[in-house]
Design a protein that fits this description.
With 171 residues, this protein is mainly α. Helix content is 57%, strand content 4%. The relative contact order is 0.06.
Length: 171
């Protein structure tokens, strides 16, 4: 499969995937096509021995104790060692909350509204199970949290005014 870029140089697409397992499969297939063992790929990428084996173990047994995900720092190392680049292209995979039709913003607002309503109903069920004393304690705790956040925000603004800096880090 070949795609055209704006500069008219063809791009050879070696794999297309829509999920994490597809990415791991593509890495495994490329490693096999290059004739590299898992340990050889680890060495070539500068990763700890056994790293690739743990990533590929996810395909056969995701709940295995040694199965692990590709880290954000190791992904570019693996791709570089395999001579690959990753790109994005429009495809058919959709997020579970993404609408099937292309209504756009209105559809996403409808989804957000339904999720908000679901959360509100959950709170009403939780409230119905509380005694009056538990509810009062819950409200007091929420008020203390809001008050603490307000005080912290006020302190941050005061420090900004005093220092005149906008990039001050606060703890």
């Amino acid at each position: 499969m070949t795609q055209q870029r704006d500069d008219a140089k063809p791009i050879k697409v070696l794999a297309a995937f829509a999920d994490y397992e597809g990415l791991v499969r593509a890495i495994r297939e490329r490693r096999s096509a290059l004739g590299l063992s898992q340990l050889a790929l680890d060495d070539l990428a500068g990763l700890p021995s056994g790293y690739t084996a743990k990533i590929e173990a996810m395909l056969t047994n995701p709940q295995a104790a040694n199965a692990r995900a590709i880290g954000r720092e190791s992904l570019p190392l693996l791709l570089g060692a395999l001579g690959l680049q990753m790109g994005l292209m429009p495809g058919g995979a959709r997020h579970r909350h993404q609408p099937q039709d292309d209504k756009g913003v209105e559809a996403m607002l409808e989804i957000k509204k339904s999720l908000s309503e679901r959360g509100r109903r959950g709170w009403l069920r939780q409230r119905a199970r509380m005694t009056e004393k538990q509810y009062r304690r819950h409200q007091q705790k929420a008020a203390r949290i809001r008050w603490r956040k307000w005080r912290e925000q006020k302190a941050r603004k005061a420090v900004k005014r005093r220092t005149g800096r906008k990039d001050t880090v606060y703890e």
